Amino acid sequence: MKRTLASAIIASHSGESAKEGDICNVKVDFAFANDITAPPAIKALKEMGASRVFDPKRCAVLPDHFTPNKDIASAQQVKLSRVFAKEQGMLYWEVGRVGVEHAFLPEQGQILPGEIVLGADSHTCTGGALGAFATGMGSTDLAAAWALGETWLRVPPTIKVNFEGTPPPWIVGKDLILALLGIVGTQGARYQAFEFHGAAVKALTMDDRFTISNMAVEGGAKAGIFVPDETMLKYAKERAVRPFNPVYPDEGANYARKVDIDTSVLKPLVAAPSSPANARPAEECSDVKIDQVFIGSCTNGRLTDIEMAAKVLKGRSVHDDVRLIVIPASYEVYNAALERGHIATFVKAGAVVCTPSCGPCLGGHLGILAEGEVCVSTSNRNFVGRMGHPKSALYLAGPLVAAASAVTGRVTDPREVLSSDELQSLKG
Amino acid sequence: MSEKLRGRAWVYGNDVDTDVIIPARYLVTSDPEELGRHCMEDLDSEFIKKMKPGDVVVGGENFGCGSSREHAPLALKSAGVSCVIAASFARIFFRNAINVGLPIFESSEAVNGISAGDEVEVDPSTGIIRNLSKGETYRATSYPPFLQHLIEVGGLVPYVRERLKEKEV
Fold first, then answer.
1. Is residue A427 within 8 angstroms of chain B, CB to CB?
2. Which of A64, B28, B33, B109 is 20 to 30 A away from residue A70, measured at CA?
3. Alpha-carbon torsion A255, A119, B17, B109, what sign?
4. Residue B2 pLDDT greater than 80, yes or no
5. Looking at residues A83-102, what average pLDDT do you find?
6. Across-strand partners of B84?
7. What is the bridge-based pairing of β-strands B56-59 and B83-86?
8. CA-to-CA distance for A287 and A412, rounded, in angstroms?
9. Residue B35 in contact with residue B74, Cβ under 8 Å?
10. pLDDT tier at A427 (50, 70, 90 boundaries)?
11. Do A384 and B163 touch (CB under 8 A)?
12. A384–B69: do the CB atoms touch at under 8 Å?
């Protein structure tokens, strides 16, 4: 049987044949929750009668959503999570060291090629950038994995995505995934997995790959997986906290569908309100005035993203009518941005820089929108009310479109703001 | 799951996401009653004021897409929704609904046939959906055997409890 990457990873963790559609019981390599999803998981774990998690070094809680604690209720949730994690001897990182979970855990070498990773957060699929079958679940499923070190998975059919061609320097990972979502829609990959291939993939940075895998769930997919290559294995080996075995798809595996995208002709994109699949060229939305720009999140808060935004803002100012909020997704990113002078660039330009947190992405805190306000955000969802008032609106975009929009005060293609020399020097 | 579920239908479209089922600003608690009070608030502010216990939520494709928050099926259940009927469910919501005991039924014909306000009765043991207002009957897709087993033993929590006992022995 020729296997897709998803099927091959599930087979390696179940000892079963793992044909598409089969329900398999699989061993879980790593399982984590955050400050919102941990409290119900802890409750469920107790109801299950489990006194210990299956392996405290493979179970983690990350306080990243409403942190630094935004109010008494969120402080209580974080405290409950922290006390539990310490009692269990689980992995827990305090505010000031922790990052947004899907940016932070790969940096810590906790998500590795060939693994099965569960998170009580839908964007757990970000781990697919490391060749892991990483998928989001609810708190009770996560509790079951904490208790047993196992879960059940239905082996998904796979959509093979070929990113072909050489993208111009101003095209980033976000443009690739928004283009894909524009083709498959919000449920075109429901109960399926994406597997990413193609000439353009080889040149993608890990940061771009994380952005792409992160938004697989916006197409309904349970996973969005890259095939291990030199770039991925170098990243993983430098950080791994445990041994790992990369898994590869078979030549000639059977794919449910193939989608080809020529990246050489892509334009900088946005996803217009209120669907991540509502892709259109940024230049076609240039009359949309904005009130806020958010650069950060588990989608685009990594060093490459921060660096791209800083290149746009260097020597420029945030528009008088715009609030620019920049949140590096981890302290590794924050410290590197500090050392390279990017934080100074943002502050001089008139931006707000906050400590690593999910922040406004899910309407938590640090930049909530009022009625009628419009925001360009590098995050992953633009659902109704996602960042605040139900009558606010979100345009999702990559860091270049976001930074260019902050300068002009309206949705802007970076090619409108940057000189041709600046455009050519965006990569490398 | 043998008792029949009955109530008026609240009909919504495709892609009803978890952010509108329960906005994140209320996720500072996982108390079901508090979550129930804000159920569907950003999609239909009248819903929670006018719905009655037993009412049925009907969605199109991809119901429950978005976040993994188990708070979403909990909010629906706590608000008094007896079940959700949709053409299809997003996968995390599907698992969560089973895990928290919110009955869900997949049936495109029911979604096409039911109008807002119709009186609907569902037999969970057979998956037969009756539209009492229109005199129509629809059939829901049956669960795979593993999931049927999970539901029969009372859900994931009792299932894991049993598995843990087996492991001890």
1. no
2. B33
3. positive
4. no
5. 98
6. B57, B104
7. parallel
8. 9
9. yes
10. confident
11. no
12. no
Indicate the number of domains in chain B: 1
Beta carbons of A71 and B28 less than 8 Å apart? yes
Q: In the CATH hierarchy, which top-level class contains the domain A268-424?
A: alpha beta
Which residues are within 8 A (CB) of A284 and not within 5 positions of it... i.e. 6 or more apart?
none
Q: Is residue B110 part of a domain?
A: yes
Residue A186 forms contact with B (CB below 8 Å): yes
Distance between CA atoms of residues B153 and A373, nearest Å:
49
User: What's the pTM value of the predicted model, to 2 decimals?
Assistant: 0.98
Placement of tokens 């895990």 in the chain: B99
Write out chain A residues lying below 8 Å of B69, CB-based.
Answer: 36-37, 138
Task: Return the amino acid letter for A426.
Answer: L
C-alpha distance from A122 to closest chain B C-alpha (Å): 5
Q: What is the pLDDT of residues A279-334, one digit of tens each?
A: 999 999 999 999 999 999 999 999 999 999 999 999 999 999 999 999 999 999 99
In terms of phi and psi (left: phi > 0; alpha: psi -120 to 50; beta: otherwise), the region of A141 is alpha
Residue whose structure tokens are 């707000």: A352
**A224-241 pLDDT, tens digit each:** 999 999 999 999 999 999
> Where do the domains of chain A lie?
5-261, 268-424
Give the H/E segment covering residue B167. Answer: helix B156-168
How many angstroms separate the CA atoms of A59 and A89, rounded?
9
- Contact criterion met (CB < 8 Å) for A187 and B65: yes
Q: Which helix (H) or strand (E) holds A307?
A: helix A303-313
Residue in A closest to B67 by C-alpha:
A122
Q: Please, what sign has the CA dihedral across residues A127, A129, A130, A134? A: positive
Q: Which of B88, B157, B164, B169 to mutate to test the interface with A (most CBs of A within 10 A)?
A: B157
Does the pLDDT of residue B109 top 70, yes or no? yes
Q: How far apart are CA A190 and CA A77, in angstroms?
A: 32
Candidates A374, A341, A338, A380; CA nearest to A358 is: A380
CATH architecture of A5-261: 2-Layer Sandwich (3.30)
CATH code of the domain in which B126 resides: 3.20.19.10
Question: What does the mean pLDDT of chain A come to?
Answer: 98
How does pLDDT run across A258-290, given as a tens digit for each residue? 999 999 999 999 999 999 999 999 999 999 999
Burial class from Cβ neighbours inside 10 Å (0-12, 13-18, 19+) for residue A94 reads: exposed
| Nearest alpha-carbon partner for A142 in A84, A219, A61, A65 | A61
Q: What are the two backbone dihedrals, phi and then psi, of residue A154, each rounded to the nearest 5 degrees?
A: -90, 125
Q: Which residues of chain A have a CB within 8 Å of the CB of B90?
A: 187, 190, 220
Residue B154 lies in a domain: no
Tell me if B88 and A136 make a contact (CB, 8 A cut-off): no
* pLDDT surpasses 60 at B1: no
As given in the structure block, the two tokens for residue A59 are: 């179970």
